[in-house]
Each structure stands twice: as structure tokens, then as C-alpha cells.
Amino acid sequence: MNILKSTLGIGLLCISTAAFPGMIHTQPVSLGSIAVLGGAFGGHVAPGNMEIYVPAGLQLSGAVNCDIHYVTTLRTIDADRSMLSLLRDAKNANQQVRLWITDDPVYTAYPGRCSLLSVERI
Fold first, then answer.
1. Once rounded to an integer, what is the mean pLDDT over residues 14-34?
2. Rounded to two decimals, what is the model's pTM?
3. Domain range for 114
4. Which of 39, 48, 50, 61 is CA-nearest to residue 87?
């Protein structure tokens, strides 16, 4: 009986602490900077990744768990650089954007940061 209780307890603990990747559509934000990284350094996992800085921070729901100021995206997610172009154009025009971001480790370009999946220029 004690073995069953222990096994059940461990199973419930595993279920209750499991984290699943999330995705959110942010409120409109202004961009502070946009960068393309030339190399893998300081935690960045690959050259060519894109980094976005949001000075006011992102309003995150409980759906994602990541840094509120930086979003870093794998080059493979934006291979044709269309999102980079939209972001650059919005920043140059002082327009806000909405971002679809995820904390899914499959898309992680920098530990602890969300990754960009889509951009909407407002």
C-alpha cells in the first residue's frame, strides 16, 4: 500500500510541475532596438539570430514565462527576413507592433527569452 501511495504521489508531483510551452499575442509595443547577431556568444545559440528590445516591457500572461524586455528569434524562423523587415520599417516610422511570441524550447534562441513567431505592424 505504501508503494502505491508513493508511486501515486510522485506521479501527481510530475503532473503538477510539468511546464508546457505557451504562445501569446502581445499588446501594441514600441521597439527600442533590433539587432542581428553575427555570432553565437554570451548565451546566443546561433549566428544570424534576431534580437528585439522592448524598453517598456511586454505584458506577459501566465501562458508564457520569459524576459519582458528581450525577444530573441532563431534565424531559421525568419529565414527570408520578412519579420526583420517589418520590424525595421515599424521602428523607422515610429509605429507600434504586436508580436506573437512563444516560450517553446523548440524555438529558443537565447535561454529565458521568448521567440518571435509573427509580427503585426499597427
1. 80
2. 0.78
3. 20-121
4. 50
